Amino acid sequence: MKLELRGITKRFGPLVANDHIDLVVEPGEVHALLGENGAGKSTLMNVLFGLYKADEGEIVVDDEPVAFKGPGDALAAGIGMVHQHFMLVPVFTVAENVMLGHEPTRGGGLLDLDAARRTVRELSDRFGFGLDPDAVVEDLPVGVQQRVEIVKALVRDARVLILDEPTAVLTPQETDELIAIMRELKAQGTSIVFITHKLREVKAVADVITVIRRGAVVGSASPDAAETELAAMMVGRAVSLGVDKAPAEPGEETFQVEHLTVRDANGIAVVDDVSFSVARGEILAVAGVQGNGQTELSEAVVGLVPATGSIRLEGRELVGLSPHEILDAGVGFVPEDRTVDGLVLDFTVAENLVLDLHDRKPFARGVALDLGAIRKNARERIEEYDIRTQGPAQEVGRLSGGNQQKVVVARELSRPLKVFVASQPTRGVDVGSIEFLHKRIVAERDNGTPVVIVSTELDEVAALADRIAVMYRGKIVGIVPADTPRAVLGLMMAGAGAEEAREQATETELDQLADEHTHETGAQQ
Amino acid sequence: MLGLLALVLFGLLPAGGRETTFGLSTSSDFVHLGPVTVPSKASAVVLSVLALLAAAYAGWCVSRARRVGRWVTIVFAVLWVLAFLTWAVAGKSTSLVSLLAGSLFLAVPLAFGALGGLIGERAGVVNIAIEGQLLTGAFGAAVFASIVSNAYLGLVAAPVAGLVIGALLALFTVKYHVNQIIVGVVLNVFAVGLTSFLYSSVLKENAATLNSPPRLPTLPIPVLGDIPVIGPVLFRQTLLVYLLYVAIVVGAIALFRTRWGLRVRAVGEYPAAADTVGIDVNRTRWGNVLLGSMVAGLGGAFFTVGSVGAFSQEMTAGKGYIALAAMILGRWSPWGALGAALLFGFSDKLQQVLGVLGTAIPNQFMLMLPYVVTIFAVAGLVGRVRGPAADGVPYVKE
Ligand SMILES: Nc1ncnc2c1ncn2[C@@H]1O[C@H](COP(=O)(O)OP(=O)(O)OP(=O)(O)O)[C@@H](O)[C@H]1O
Ligand SMILES: [Mg+2]
């Protein structure tokens, strides 16, 4: 199916989110959309999917102009979409979410749940997603929710598939699987619009790249272009993709976790007797495949889930305190799912920037809020973190995904901290802003704050970590130095101990080198 | 739990001397059961001790960080009520059958109202206007049944009358995104004003033609109606009560087992998600508000053709709000709503029975009973309930 957007313009009040955008997606083509946070990529896709009404322009499907009154029409025309902000009903099961809108029935409108379960299992097996059809979505970690969202789109056999940052919370292995799926779909003639901030993925799968900046198309690029070139095109300036940081100067170990155990509702230990400590001026990265207890570990630190064992910060015990007390004790926390735990979407940017600070100086005067100070703080943070918003008074829910993430990180880093714990701190953030956030986190370290970063993104782990703790099935299988080869980390993430992994890695190293070599030459051809 | 424990002691201590008699059957029963007479003090003590045991078991579960099964709460409540009854009726006699049948009878408008409310709220529209729908339903049923002198046709007019209020609610909240609570309250006031005006200006003068409806006859169901205790309670009722059974069963299946129900719940939880899979959010909401208001309107028929016959001003007396409490207590599920409505109906009936018997409790306190039960039930028994996430939030598209 050939899809054409002609002169699409979408305004939100005074803001022009899409400014006369033209885009052609040929049948069987993977079309990558690149652009910084707030460039207007999601808005454009929502227009295409019928969620937003364009102010100007038209959508042409197979040379016929179409008018979508809503997503129902777009679905009927064979367009499917994976949404950046998951469109999953939290209290429904995976199977219920996947079947919603085209439910299998057994006559009389009675749902056929068994059929839905079977469909989920089939697709999930085919793509190696390992989904449980009866799991309730709100209990799942974001990475798993992302897989559900993908399955939900795939199950409809769309002829044009829009993927809006599907890989933001996937592990490298899952991303590879998704890329394989995309290739398979492409071979069957499905056109794909693919949005991501990870240039490696774009280079791996895209046929055409269109770059958008500030609502307008600034050009297209070939997937052969160097990553730095693509990054520069997106942001409009040169971006350094690595972080240059001085070696850590670890001080006193002020953050200690001992025998920490977290049990889920069924009494299974999802964090299983974990101990580690982090020194001032040091970054410990926690790596691992999603769902191995990292989420719960970070949540236990701030008291969001009940835990046993001990977490001490400068000698003070945190286990048993309320989240409020823990934050007051000087813990900065970036949760993995910003929309659930990190932000109040209906509050303004300014309010969200002082969510956990509103009751103290300089933002409070007695029982009243000092609105002037709050606004001033917002302006400074917006400037510092380059948050693209119409102003401090805009509702956070209306910011683009990456900009919402920046709000959370900006808030947490804007007060004096004794430890900084962040889950996927740069989820959905563009390359230019990742550069900035990474610098900012390293600066916090150099200030003498112990930092714990939970990330499934090995690039991020490599960029930030001074030491790496690898988690597998709730246990830390080893804590290794930052320069540990990826092959070793990969094996550890599959459960091997550090020593064992190193041995195995040396054995397979030669094969791997050979592999990589063929891969590279393959890419050059 | 501990608070309730103290209440058990209250039930236990001042149990007065003699004996309590429970009538178990009515005179017309096929199988006749003799009344049961029990020594009131002893049985009150025994029942209280059993209730205490249930409470202790629950406490033990909590201390072991285990979940307390709902059945424990229910067993506790039943035992406690029985103990209380034995104590209160000590030295006199009461008919258990008429107590239970009366409870069901009084629960009818509450159950219909709660069901109507939850049909709307499951789709994300708060329906505070249940009170108004009950009232217009009562009015419509009375007038129409009088005109055609047929009580059954009153049951047809009631939902239509409720529908009028529902349509206004949907128009303002779904179409124009006005705050749902405000519209609901305004509509209640409107319903009171409209029916009172029509009552005093039209019905009063023409009471014989417009406001003297026939009442729904009791329709005993053969065989089922002859089962001891249960039969007379459940199966010697009017058509309206049988319609309630049907509505609850159909409602429960429709909401949780059908395509329609899944879509409705998706709209109430996360309308944007429903929209992205091609479900028309606002059309679903329209449909549900209208359906819910018809169900509530039908419940309104209870007040006139279902019980006393003629319509009188503001005769629903806040039952619509108690129905909303029943909806919440029943966790937005039809069976839960029925259970909660029965609880409120029971406390209401108990108040009447004990008032007639003239027990030691002051009359004013007895009149408060249904409302006290409502407050305790909503605050205590429910705990943390979670309604539909998008309840009350209009869906606006960019
Ligand atoms: N519903 C809305 N109301 C007002 N402004 C909006 C709304 N949705 C998006 N915007 C604004 O439109 C601009 C483009 O947002 P969009 O979500 O399309 O960005 P994006 O390119 O997808 O960014 P990201 O990479 O961070 O996801 C942003 O400045 C955003 O604040
Ligand atoms: Mg986006």
Distance between the termini of chain A: 28 Å
Q: Give the CA-CA distance, first to last residue of chain B.
A: 49 Å
Protein chain pair with the most extensive contact, residues per chain: A-B, 32 and 23 residues
Q: Beta-strand percentage of chain A?
A: 15-25%
What would you say this structure looks like, in words?
- Chain B: It is found in: Cell membrane.
- Chain B: This is ABC transporter permease.
- Chain B: It is a multi-pass membrane protein.
- Chain B: Its main location: membrane.
- The complex is a heterodimer of chains A (525) and B (398).
- Chain A has 525 residues and is α/β, with parallel strands linked by helices.
- Helix content of chain A is 36%, strand content 24%.
- Chain A has 18 helices and 22 strands.
- In chain A, the strands form 5 sheets. Chain A has a 6-stranded mixed sheet with strand order 6-7-8-3-9-10, sandwiched between helices. A 6-stranded mixed sheet of chain A has the order 16-19-20-13-21-22, with helices on both faces. A 4-stranded antiparallel sheet of chain A has the order 2-1-4-5, with helices on one face.
- In chain A, α17 crosses α18.
- Chain A starts with a strand and ends with a helix.
- The C terminus of chain A is likely disordered.
- Chain B is mostly helical.
- In chain B, 69% of the residues lie in helices and 5% in strands.
- Chain B contains 17 helices and 5 strands.
- The N and C termini of chain B lie far apart (49 Å).
- At the A-B interface, α2 and α3 of A face α11 and α12 of B.
- The structure holds adenosine-5'-triphosphate and magnesium ion.
- The site of magnesium ion has 6 residues of chain A, from α1.
